[in-house]
Predict the structure.
Amino acid sequence: MSDFQSLLSPLTFLEPIVPSRELEPLTEYEAWWRREGMAISSAVDRLGTAWLRMFDELGHRVDEILFPPEYWKMLKQGYQAGAIWRPFEDGSLRAHYLIDYVTCFFDAGLACPYIVSLSTAVPLKKYGPTKQQEQFLPQMLRRDEKVWQGATWMTEVKGGSDLGANVETKARRVADHWTLNGDKYFASNVSAELAIVAARPEGAQQGPKGLALFLVPRYRKHGELNYFIRRLKNKIGTRSVPTGEVELRDSEAYLIGRQEWGLYLILESLNLSRVGNIAGSVALAQRALADALTFAQQRVAFGRPIFEHPLMRRQFEQRFTQLQQARALMWEAIQLLDEVWQEKPRYSDRYHLFRLVTHLAKYWTAELAVQLAKWGMEVHGGVGVLAEYSPERWLREAMILPIWEGTPHRQMLDGLEVMERKRGHKLLFDHLAPNSNSAELQEMSSRIEFLLQLPLDEKEAGIEEVFKDLAEFVARTLATRYNKIAFR
Amino acid sequence: MSDFQSLLSPLTFLEPIVPSRELEPLTEYEAWWRREGMAISSAVDRLGTAWLRMFDELGHRVDEILFPPEYWKMLKQGYQAGAIWRPFEDGSLRAHYLIDYVTCFFDAGLACPYIVSLSTAVPLKKYGPTKQQEQFLPQMLRRDEKVWQGATWMTEVKGGSDLGANVETKARRVADHWTLNGDKYFASNVSAELAIVAARPEGAQQGPKGLALFLVPRYRKHGELNYFIRRLKNKIGTRSVPTGEVELRDSEAYLIGRQEWGLYLILESLNLSRVGNIAGSVALAQRALADALTFAQQRVAFGRPIFEHPLMRRQFEQRFTQLQQARALMWEAIQLLDEVWQEKPRYSDRYHLFRLVTHLAKYWTAELAVQLAKWGMEVHGGVGVLAEYSPERWLREAMILPIWEGTPHRQMLDGLEVMERKRGHKLLFDHLAPNSNSAELQEMSSRIEFLLQLPLDEKEAGIEEVFKDLAEFVARTLATRYNKIAFR
Amino acid sequence: MSDFQSLLSPLTFLEPIVPSRELEPLTEYEAWWRREGMAISSAVDRLGTAWLRMFDELGHRVDEILFPPEYWKMLKQGYQAGAIWRPFEDGSLRAHYLIDYVTCFFDAGLACPYIVSLSTAVPLKKYGPTKQQEQFLPQMLRRDEKVWQGATWMTEVKGGSDLGANVETKARRVADHWTLNGDKYFASNVSAELAIVAARPEGAQQGPKGLALFLVPRYRKHGELNYFIRRLKNKIGTRSVPTGEVELRDSEAYLIGRQEWGLYLILESLNLSRVGNIAGSVALAQRALADALTFAQQRVAFGRPIFEHPLMRRQFEQRFTQLQQARALMWEAIQLLDEVWQEKPRYSDRYHLFRLVTHLAKYWTAELAVQLAKWGMEVHGGVGVLAEYSPERWLREAMILPIWEGTPHRQMLDGLEVMERKRGHKLLFDHLAPNSNSAELQEMSSRIEFLLQLPLDEKEAGIEEVFKDLAEFVARTLATRYNKIAFR
Amino acid sequence: MSDFQSLLSPLTFLEPIVPSRELEPLTEYEAWWRREGMAISSAVDRLGTAWLRMFDELGHRVDEILFPPEYWKMLKQGYQAGAIWRPFEDGSLRAHYLIDYVTCFFDAGLACPYIVSLSTAVPLKKYGPTKQQEQFLPQMLRRDEKVWQGATWMTEVKGGSDLGANVETKARRVADHWTLNGDKYFASNVSAELAIVAARPEGAQQGPKGLALFLVPRYRKHGELNYFIRRLKNKIGTRSVPTGEVELRDSEAYLIGRQEWGLYLILESLNLSRVGNIAGSVALAQRALADALTFAQQRVAFGRPIFEHPLMRRQFEQRFTQLQQARALMWEAIQLLDEVWQEKPRYSDRYHLFRLVTHLAKYWTAELAVQLAKWGMEVHGGVGVLAEYSPERWLREAMILPIWEGTPHRQMLDGLEVMERKRGHKLLFDHLAPNSNSAELQEMSSRIEFLLQLPLDEKEAGIEEVFKDLAEFVARTLATRYNKIAFR
């Protein structure tokens, strides 16, 4: 019988797959959320989009984000728990994603700052100039409330997927630094002290290969604002991360890594946040299911709690199983990332395996999060559509998950590319073989090989059905493997 | 090749299945929406929940709903187009649901007032006391802006599905009328001039069979308010229909039909609105797909409109096909209802066939509406989650559709009951036989018969998979039939 | 030369007139406001009216007020600083009003809870039944965050000034308590645990003399809600105190004092809150002036800070003087109240002197608060009307001050009554004589005597001019006296 | 006896001083407001600040202001009634200000668009280049809903009074036009099709004399946006005029008049809008008093309508008299402007007389508007502070009036300058002599002469008391004169 009650706690739900020595340090963090964080998070969501104060009374540009003060307290909890400093202390990213997981169970938007901060700190450490490392990294690794936040600003107004065509921000070399000019359209965590920013150096080629990656601090050397927030965006959810439009106006910037490696670095950064999206999706899916469970166990119809109605019960069981599979997929992605995150081009096969698993997992878990959030509303009936209760919120929060870090469409096409160019599916099947049903594995393999030899347009058009089944197969296979471990 | 452009107009999209003489009268109605209505609808949604002014400055209770004045203009358009008066003139409900369809393409909440007005006018005409018919019906059939609205208030705070247990409103007979006391928790179209209300007469039995149905006008005989609006509810969507909580306090009421028929009358009323939900779902699904199409044809990535990317194109084709199937299912439900709506208990087999088709169609089309709204957001990418554009709105609007008029859970169990007690599936298969693949039909039939002989709990637990496939099968079969007609 | 910088701190500004041993205990309270409270207060105001959650997800009535959680933290600071427990420990109300003063410098609405809590605790102690004293008083005197709040609910929908005619709430005696039925229209601090409520016992006479005063706890003996919050009111300001409409429905209640003393008790309670209004008015006036000063010292026009422009400077000086006079008037009202608050009917001359001074001071200081808030906006120029800066807020906050606790109209007529029936002006002139210009005093006296012998209608019509001059004269005279003390 | 009922209609109230042939054409305009406009205006205010849509879904900058569509209908009414075309047809501005008056009785913000449109059209006609006159003027004089709006953008972030120091927008000559670069901070009517903009040509001197005035159309020659709206400002009131921040970025512009006349042209434009402010102030004051009257006549306390209480009645009479005096002052300013508006530098004595009267009237009437709005709230008691009723709105609307077009401080100092440099007081006294009490006039004259011979700092510091009394004296004197005319 399923232990549904494990749904009520993120750490409890992770227990079967994550070593308890990794979970224990987060006990207090989860407890804080119950004690204080949940009420704050709920208030921040209820408030709607935060205000941007552009100028102070005297007309000085300040670009201050007016959250309730306890927002900042809530935000800093995760940093203090180790969202950034632990990876650098441990040499492993696992603690980061576990913190994301716990965070997203309680506030699906709040992990975004942690994720983009990681996606800033890692390239700074891997590729950043020594001077900037010395200057900025210690700020990002602080364990107190003065910790610096990071941000990753790539997308411009013409769209996010085709960065090569759409990044119009220009970089110009001046003395010991660069200056950037351009506008970023979806700038998450817009009040960060340090951002990594995609731009095209003067004279660089068109297309994705002409992009380079830069560090941009919030303040200029002499203390003035180094970029401007044009406005905050009213989003359907994730109000706990301020997303804005950013104006770069002769903004001081520092090149990270080799100029011609820009695209690789962007993709590496995206890998980090994509795995964060996976963790957040599973956590939100768990939360939606947990809240539905709590309600269904108490709401009585036809003489008994609706949870005890056979159809409802069956639906809970099916979704609980899906959630466990998603959990396995998530943990696999995290572990693989943890093996490859320090690689630089040219990458190993393990890296390509990681990429494929991540495309599958991102696609699959975000979809699950939305579907469980939607189903959670249905379980609540009419109450589910009211702004005053949580299910409505989880649906609003969930909607960003399939879109952030690449839409499903993007995951499929990028996944296809890894299969075509790196034989990623081969790597994947080898990886799964010891634990999978070999007939099923064989059939999946044949379908993919068949697909890959189709003409380009048919290949792309046909990817969805295969990709979806592959994701489900991988999730199920991994869940079986983890179950074996868990019950050993 | 699919004619995607037909998506851009509700009337054009209906052309293949609805006789043009029924569509033509609505040409000006659709044109009005483009000319004026869309902008009004968008403003009303942007405004959020309307205000309720409970008292005037001098302390008189007024319960006035403060919409922008053009809201009322928009609302009255559909009544003037014939949402209520046409069914009574035509002796057919088809015009009503076509108006709902056009309305919901532009504003998914606004058809609700029309639907509940119909659900008030029909029982008033079928079962209402002569005096009240004479008094109220002409008001509801007006063709000018003074037309009266109806409303159907059943649900109380403990929940909507188990009305038998949860309706605590009491009715007491006094002289020539009744008085009602109780609170209604989800009262749609709360500013209606006339509502039908479920209540339990003093001395009536417990459970659903003790319920009776009453007419409750907004004003008492001597002009005072006859019920009070406790508050308007903040819903995720459908802000163009004010939903409130209603306090009945010695409210003057008139019994409709025989007291012991209450439950039947409630279910008849629900049939009417359930079909409205189906029409609204297909219309909203069409709109979401239309907006996604418009965007995809203009948004360029990797050198061409994203609509021309093979995977995106394939996805559009699949969804367009699903939408056409949903359209067929909808039209079948409307036609069947139009055959049986004048029946009184005991009902014919045709009525039971209608019920099963409607449960399938409500379940299937509401799900499609949500999924297309969600997918429409994904097509828009980041832009999709922003409050300032339409896709975010369609998702918010869609979320009510699976919940209003019975959740999916409810449709399945009620559908199961029709199959068990009335052999509804048998009626359905006979109905479809001339146009369906007989092997497939045979298989569906076997699966249902197998299910029906299971023990109660297993039967209920197992209904979902069968019901879903049945809905898809029926939709597909009907679409094929309509295609034949259309292309004849 | 004026020491304008004293404007920047409430405690510093009070130093010249309040013994430092009384101010010192509040140093940490003021410091807390600067450290944390200001930002919280600003966020609460920005949020607009709080949400009322009437029902939980399962349909249980809860009437929960959804403030951001830090609101409650902010609210509790003043209680912990001693808003209620100190008066009961000290045997003096002065600490209470000093806390109000500091509070209102930072948040003009937040002292209201303290004031109405005091106005609840005092009659409970003076007149309450022993059993209820033992039960409730210790809760109100707690020094931790579980302290109970009080509230004073008199006004009904037909208006506040003519309570005798407008209180329709009925009280009925049952066993050991009473039950109340009626609606209160302006119920401040609506989430209080204990309220005093005006109602008319069954059988009591019409008019003000038939009113009695009752204690009404938030929860019934058996734990259910004892009253219901119909809604929160959207006010122009003072969003940090939730004002609502309250429904008393067979609410358990306890008579305070003798039934026939109701009106006296109501007026005694009003005395307490009227003095709170005076303290709040002077504090808000100080704050508006302080913010204007800060701005004017920094904003440069025509080559120098606008504060240095001669006309602006002159205006600051005049307002600073007015503020010092208002401070004297306030402190006099507090001291007089502190002498008489334990009196019961029949009252002494000192009590009547207190009443007249309080009517004058309430009238005068509220007007000053509005005028300085308005002028503060003008000093800020265009910036002053923007919602994102403080001057706009002080104006919104100030507007309640002349209205709460009796409009100017009311103060004048009640003041007139004290003069006519108790020769209050005679008591006042005797009180001021040692420190006033005797010619001026003589002239004021003559004007009043002249007024008093006019026919009723002319007397009332003519009161304003005299009353205004009298208030100004008293304020100026007292300021002179305090200046002598201060500079001794 | 005062005819209080004339307060209820703007045109009726103007009858005693404005020839009926000038009022009659506005009868339908006032009737429209009652029929439709009031409800629209109320909805627009309730909505709060409008939304700015910066980009369309495809990322094109559009800067669209999202008002409810009926806003635009309301806005266009005044243009159609003749706010702009009538002055050009009549050769007189009187019709314009009468339209402002009627408008502001119903919506205090909505006249702003008319006023700034006039302030654009007049300099365009007086000083504009022929080509731009031919191109733009016919658009501004249209009588249909396609009429163009104007706007006057001077103020930048450092403040509005010291334009000479604070205008940092630069103008550069290119071929047949200029380009402007800079940011405007308070840009009223921000969606106008044509604005006049203060900027400093390259090479021009510092200070006010280096400013020039330019025409800036909303769209560039080739159809792109010619300026950008950075954001809309959240103001306490006047939500029916969108105020924003404007970014001029190589904006195409056309010089108006001689470059070195810029300051004169700015001041001429300000004259036009200052008189509009006067009309709006008196109209709002009338409205506040009218609403208070309506309430007071219906609200009963102590057995009779509060309007019949002697003190209340007296207060109404005093305020009604003040309002009549303000009306006289307003009409005088309008008539004087109508005599001098076509003058160009160097100006006549009549022009200087006009300036002084206007400074006095702006100061006096705006103050009255605020004080009556505030008092109107007090008359309403607690109801007055609630957002759902009108008094709260009039107070919010009124607060802009003393600030727009120059604060009181500014009026006094500018008035002082007219007296010092142009002997404006002498002109004024000559103007008033035939109708004034000569002793009083003599005393005013002496006080002013005394003031004028003081040292600069003392003169400025002392202006307020004199200016206030002068304004009151002028208003009273003019009212007497008009009364004579009226009752002849």
User: Anything to note?
Assistant: Chain B has a mean pLDDT of 96.
